[in-house]
Amino acid sequence: MAKQMTNHKTVKIFLTIAAIFLFIYPSSSFAQKKIKIISYNVLYGLKEDTVNIDRYKKLVAKLDPDVVATQEMNGFTQKTLESLANSYGHPYALQSKEEGFPTALTSKKPMVNAKKVTENMWHSYAYAKVEGVHIFVIHFSPFSYKKRLEEVNHIIAQAGELPADEPILIMGDFNSLSPQDKSHYDENLLVSMRRSEEKNDHIRNLNDGQIDYSVVGALLDAGFKDSFYLNNKVFDGTTPTFKDGNGKIKQSNTGTQRRIDYIFCNEEAARSITMSKIIKDELTHYISDHYPMYIEMEL
Which pTM does this prediction carry? Predict the structure, then answer.
């Protein structure tokens, strides 16, 4: 009997200590990890300009991201990408190819199952799993909505092979407009796009004479969410930028702000995203003709 009472007291003491411990350190405080990610079309390999590369390094240093996904890494090789990545504290780097318009991925932590794909893509894409997050870095065709539709369906099929209960991100320059932004695009944009097609036989971005929304629509139909609208209610464009240097938005040949850069996420990733924004500051006004997308996740 005495032994049973001793055991009972021991269990009671243990449960009391456990309760106090959980009160002081709730379970939510464990396993919470913030991951910061940038997706950025950097324009012809940062224009291969030392001043501009320095701007880019300052931007990355300021944001201190865990992952950086870039498009248009023209002129870079795997080795020079690794050198650039090391300069801002990313010992891991992956470039999709070394000619044309490569996509790239750099990270603080190791990449798992990394691959680079050129087949069936206008440019290419890079894929890796970093910190438990599946990441696709894409850059779709700038000239044909039909080709972009082929590309996005290819990416959706690849993502469909991954576990649905793991976070998946598809990011980059989609060269595509979203049906969620449809009210922002007016007749002037359509007229400009028609003129462009009349002058250039290789440009076929209109779908039956109208603005095409099918590429982004395919992602939405597949269950992916636009991370920007998880945390924002008002439209903002990713191109063009200030680039003329006078502090005013430089009008593109379409004469309007467009959002063609995205970070799409599956349901699992969407639950983890705590911040999503387009970065517009004294550095990104001039680094590229695109503004970068930025998200934070709590995993």
Answer: 0.88
